[in-house]
Write the structure tokens for this entry.
Amino acid sequence: MKIAMICTEKLPVPPIAGGAVQLYIEGIVPYLAQHHDITVFCIEHPRLMSEEIIGKVRYIRLPSPTKTSYIANIKEKLDSSFDLVYVFNRPLWVLSLAKSLPSTRFGLSLHNEMFHMEKIDDKKGLECIKRVEFINTVSQFIADGVTDRFPDAQPKLNVIYSGADTSKYFPRWSLEGMDNNKKLKAKYGISNHRIVLYVGRLSNKKGVDILLKAMSKVMDTCPDVALVIIGSKWYGKNETDEYTASLQSLAGNLKGPVVFTGFLPPSKIPAHYNMGDIFVCPSQWQEPLARVLYEAMAAGLPIITTNRGGNAEVIAKGKNGLLLDDHDGYKNCSSPDVLAEYIGYLLDNPRLASDMGQEGRKLAEKKYNWERVAKDVLDVLAKVPAKASVRTTPKVETPPESIIKSTEQGISIINDFFDFNI
């Protein structure tokens, strides 16, 4: 099939400025392009060409001063030659783009709660579900959110868990991992410390402040522990707001070192995971399923995260990580004291932490990698029917004579679907 993949208006592909959707697209397109003609539409970026071909994938990058103008620019480039338009995380765009492409199939990939009532009304939600051939979601949590509101969507839903590139993320016990660990800890002046690692945006819904408060208690009993925080307020930038300033203030009161790296380009992220002894993802919102969990597993790190949204779906308690769970009236997910206990437990039990990290690496190699993600997407694409033919009803004109004008356009699309063995 000839497929157009429509990225969001936030960040470009390849993900030089980061972004979960952008990393997802970059991860799967090399595999999809072995079987289909792929064109990725995304926003322009000063460091990227407006059009180029990377491998077998064509990229078209368009101006996006506003969301509306970006969609308009996509419409100008899209035409009926595409068999499928695969929209990422923007169900409303399906309806907008489909108006001029009545015979083209549409698909949708959901990475957030985009069918929430605050995002789309009942009428448009049902129209979108009816128009698409499939809806792929990054977690069961997201899928359940769709079917709870729109039960008719259930047959079209496919839960496809994301992954990480296990060829770029070295386990911490590998020669490459140990070398990265030594060099980066020396760079940041924390060579003699055990490292608690956080990777992600600096946002209150990510719970970075709770982690810092927990570390106050951890550092009281573990003077050889440092906290490394990788990320910024927004992708590709190092801006300061009231929240990020408050994090710096909290860090200044801790007994041990706290390193804020600021934004790091995706190319530098894998090596930085090797600094960690423990990875913490203290999500405070209903996280769809944090991408960083896959990266931490690929790097062989034991994980501590909260049972919020879809995070728990990839954590086997006590095997590849620990879960903070709200229960019996106790809000453990938002408790710095409980988080401190979990961190302290893994610090006090290094063999258990190591076993968890090794289990996570095995899961990444076997299940949570881009090869498997792409295979699941290809399985869904194989079920998409050929593009429908467009027929126009003959128009009869009278008088003085009946002149019948009819046009009929027949489109025969032959899709070759090959076995995809990984």
